[in-house]
């Protein structure tokens, strides 16, 4: 017999969890609700109640809730860790960092998927040296499934490519963006880690990809506008109470001293005005070989594995890996409705 599927209103009535709270829970824990687009089954109502209680129990600390859920439902609650790479200003090296960080994780044996969420000017495939057959454009047009989008890339990496140069893709409906987010959280079969490369600026879709993340890597450069924009982004992320840890990576530094100066400036502002400090992930210097790798479409970490900057990408990945996936104590609390 087919199980009854309830509307969200009925689900709220039957579970005792408010509608707005249900939406919030589904947004934050989509891997627990694979099929609610067609209605809420009794199993979903149980899971809603359970997560609602856990959120209260853990004082809104979603990382702790996730850890608890993973223990209780190893299969259902399994979601890959998500790292979103972003910046205030454009052109600061987000895609370069996302690709090389992903390769550093893959080098460390982590099953890693790089997701190009720059929906306007997607170019991960260019830097990764791929000519994808299927991209998010084909997904959007209903000509490909999510699984068909996964491409094998050099370095043991898997990549989901965006489609470049397609007008209108930049301002995609939030409904589709949310669908992408849910699919990313369900990638556990394919990857233990998903790295998301975003577009510059704080659009609603970028904020959504930030809010999905366990870690948000903010890329800043010594350029004054970039430094200020990085701070503004961190501020908005704080105001929005995104659940992930905020990390800072300085790119395009002339040397270590300049990187430290940029880092300290941003940390000091965050400490003073936000009473919070992003966690530093180190720096990458301005390096003609990085630019050359882009031009040649050869990922830097693969073409130049024995360089200081390759070591720095590995170090940043190790710092991210070192943080336990669910540092209940360290994660900022999120105000649940
Ligand atoms: N450390 C570096 N040294 C030299 N060149 C770099 C460095 N980091 C990035 N670049 C170069 O800067 C250019 C922009 O980098 P990238 O595409 O990664 O930036 P982005 O932030 O993703 O840009 P967008 O905002 O358009 O998405 C590329 O040509 C890249 O090779
Ligand atoms: Mg980019």
Short descriptors:
Rossmann fold; single chain; eight-stranded mixed sheet; binds magnesium ion; 337 residues; 14 helices; 2 domains; binds adenosine-5'-triphosphate; alpha/beta
Overall helicity: 40-55%
Can you name the CATH architecture of the largest domain? 3-Layer(aba) Sandwich
Q: Whole-number radius of gyration?
A: 20 Å
Mean of pLDDT: 88
Low-confidence stretches: 325-336
Count of DSSP helices? 14
Distance between the termini: 36 Å
- Give the CATH level 1 class of the largest domain: Alpha Beta
Instruction: Classify the fold: give the CATH topology of the largest domain.
Output: Rossmann fold
Main sheet makeup: 8 strands, mixed
Which series of helices and strands comes N to C?
HHHHEHEHHEEHEHEHEHEHHH
Strand proportion: 5-15%
Task: Give the assembly state of these chains.
Answer: single chain
Q: Helix- and strand-based class?
A: alpha/beta
What is the number of E strands?
A: 8
Mass-distribution shape: globular
Describe this structure in words.
- With 337 residues, the protein is α/β, with parallel strands linked by helices.
- The chain has helices at residues 8-15, 19-28, 42-57, 62-72, 94-107, 124-128, 136-140, 174-185, 204-211, 224-239, 256-274, 288-296, 300-303, 308-322; strands spanning 81-86, 112-117, 150-153, 157-160, 193-198, 215-220, 245-253, 279-285.
- Residues 325-336 have low confidence and may be disordered.
- The two termini are 36 Å apart.
- Helix 8 (174-185) packs parallel to helix 9.
- An 8-stranded mixed β-sheet has the order 3-4-2-5-1-6-7-8, with helices on both faces.
- It is built from 14 helices and 8 strands.
- A hairpin with a 3-residue loop joins strand 3 and strand 4.
- The protein has 2 domains: 8-72, no CATH class; 81-322, Rossmann fold (3-Layer(aba) Sandwich).
- The site of magnesium ion has 5 residues, from helix 5.
């Amino acid at each position: 017999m087919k199980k009854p599927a309830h509307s969200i209103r009925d689900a709220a009535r039957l579970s005792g969890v408010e509608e707005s709270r249900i939406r919030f829970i589904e947004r934050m824990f989509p891997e627990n609700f694979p099929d609610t687009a067609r209605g809420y089954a009794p199993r979903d109502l149980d899971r809603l109640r359970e997560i609602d209680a856990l959120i209260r129990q853990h004082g809104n600390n979603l990382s702790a809730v996730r850890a608890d859920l993973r223990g209780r439902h190893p299969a259902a609650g399994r979601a890959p860790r998500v790292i979103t790479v972003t910046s205030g200003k454009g052109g600061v090296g987000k895609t370069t960092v996302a690709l090389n960080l992903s390769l550093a994780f893959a080098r460390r044996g982590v099953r890693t998927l790089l997701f190009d969420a720059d929906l306007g000017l997607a170019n991960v495939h260019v830097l990764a040296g791929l000519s994808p057959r299927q991209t998010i454009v084909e997904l959007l047009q209903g000509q490909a499934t999510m699984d068909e989008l996964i491409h094998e890339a050099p370095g043991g990496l898997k990549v989901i490519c965006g489609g470049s140069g397609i007008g209108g893709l930049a301002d995609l409906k939030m409904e589709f963006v949310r669908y992408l987010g849910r699919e990313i959280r369900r990638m556990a079969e394919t990857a233990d880690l998903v790295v998301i490369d975003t577009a510059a600026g704080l659009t609603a879709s970028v904020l959504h990809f930030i809010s999905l993340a366990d870690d948000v890597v903010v890329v800043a450069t010594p350029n004054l506008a970039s430094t200020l924009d990085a701070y503004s982004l961190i501020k908005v992320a704080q105001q929005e109470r995104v659940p992930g840890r905020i990390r800072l990576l300085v790119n395009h530094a002339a040397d270590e001293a300049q990187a430290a100066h940029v880092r300290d400036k941003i940390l000091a502002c965050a400490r003073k005005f936000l009473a919070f400090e992003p966690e530093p992930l180190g720096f990458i210097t301005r390096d003609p070989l990085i630019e050359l790798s882009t031009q040649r479409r050869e990922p830097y970490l693969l073409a130049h594995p024995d360089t200081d900057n390759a070591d720095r990408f590995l170090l940043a990945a190790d710092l991210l890996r070192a943080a336990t996936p669910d540092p209940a104590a360290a994660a900022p609390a999120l105000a649940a409705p």
